[in-house]
Design goal:
320 residues; alpha/beta; 14 helices; 7 strands; 49% helix
Length: 320
């Protein structure tokens, strides 16, 4: 997408063989390998070389690798570089959002220029120039607007937001709900169940978000409801796929080994359950998904537990 706008793009790959394949064959042998890389992309396995002189740095590593990679990258970032995180997750032990992790590992002078990108966006569809709309969030609006202008094009549109916490939580927590809806779909639970899980899942996300200082309106936007709809219903969703296979009775290690890709919701579920407990927030769907992932309950029993919880008012979610 950036190459289409005649930008000089350098991509870092941890594996030298992947970098070599991108440069010589214009293919990434591991991800979206059927799609050609634009000629304007050059790849390297040298992190310092990848970052040298770059005005815009887009970080798209898995959430569990963010701290290590960006700690190593910190010394090579150009002064004034804008850092865009597309990483969706919650760090396990610390309970930090990805923005929080970046603030811990990057020098303080970079903090105002950390921008978070989130929203309903499957990578394959972006690569195929399918219309996509996302949110870019930054505490300093100037940098969000700069990223918006750089990334937006006829098939990729960005909106800005200053609610970094809300945008990040929406992007991370929707993966948990996608596993839940996948489980229901794998059990042939029906459209009613899927709709209920998505709606009540959004209520859980909002509840945690308000506790953490987010603007509840954010969760009605692209990084909240928008991403939730896509991830819970789209066949390209890795997290939904994990849930579907769990609902069909398969075990988690087998599913993950077969996928060969990261399903962020698995790690995020465990991190969020710990965070919710620490903050005293009730998140029954997330907690039930966690129990299924850990093999403590079967998908069938999990659904029954959710349906037979103590009855209450829907308005309780919005009374503070």
């Amino acid at each position: 997408m950036l190459c289409a706008r005649e930008n000089d793009v350098r991509i870092w790959a941890r594996d030298p063989e992947v970098a070599q394949s991108i440069n010589s064959e214009r293919r990434n042998p591991r991800y979206l390998s059927d799609l050609a890389m634009p000629e304007g992309v050059t790849a390297t396995s040298d992190l310092e070389e990848a970052l040298s002189g770059r005005e815009l740095v887009i970080c798209a590593v898995p959430s569990h690798g963010l701290r290590d990679v960006m700690a190593r990258a910190a010394g090579s970032l150009a002064p004034g570089a804008i850092i865009v995180s597309t990483v969706k997750g919650i760090e396990g032990d610390s309970g930090l959002t990805m923005h929080g992790v970046l603030e811990e590992v990057l020098p303080e002078d970079h903090h105002p220029r950390i921008v978070c990108l989130s929203g309903p966006s499957f990578a394959r569809e972006i690569a195929k120039r399918k219309a996509t709309v996302v949110t870019v969030a930054c505490k300093e609006e100037t940098y969000a607007i700069s990223v918006q202008a750089t990334l937006s094009c006829p098939w990729f549109r960005c909106y800005t937001n200053d609610d970094v916490v809300g945008v990040e939580l929406g992007g991370a927590l929707k993966n948990i709900i996608a596993i839940a809806t996948g489980i229901a779909d794998g059990m042939d639970g029906g459209n009613n169940a899927r709709s209920a899980l998505m709606t009540r899942g959004l209520a859980e996300i909002t509840r945690l978000g308000i506790k953490m200082g987010a603007n509840p309106t954010t969760f009605l936007g692209l990084s909240g409801m928008g991403d939730l709809i896509l991830t819970c219903t789209g066949d390209l969703s890795r997290n939904r796929r994990v849930g579907v296979e769990l609902g069909r009775g398969r075990n988690l290690p087998e599913i993950l080994a077969e996928m060969g890709e990261v399903a962020e919701g698995v790690r995020t579920t465990r991190a969020v359950c710990q965070l919710a407990k620490r903050l005293g927030i009730e998140m029954p769907i997330a907690q039930t998904v966690g129990a299924v992932l850990d093999g403590e309950v079967t998908p069938l029993d999990a659904g029954l537990q959710l349906m037979t919880r103590q009855l209450g008012s829907e308005l309780d979610d919005y009374r503070g």
